[in-house]
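Entry for zinc ion complex. Fields follow.
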Amino acid sequence: MNKRWTIDKIKEFVEKNSDSTLLTTEYHGFSQKLLFRCACGNQFEKNFTKFKNKHQRKCDVCQPPKQSR
Ligand SMILES: [Zn+2]
C-alpha cells in the first residue's frame, strides 16, 4: 500500500492539512528533509514521514519536538 508521493501531492497535502507552506521543489524520498515555512514565518526542515505520520506540522517554536517537563 505504498503510495507514491510526488512533490505536487506533498505540496497539496501540506496546504490542505496544515498552516505551513512547502518550500522544497523537488522530492527524492521519505528520508529527505523538506523545507517548510510555518504560519508564524519561521522556516523549518522535516522529512515528510514525520510531517504526515507524526503530525509535526509546525516549526520547533510553535510545536517543540519534545515536551520536556
Ligand atoms: Zn511556527
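NOTE: The first helix runs from residue 7 to 17.
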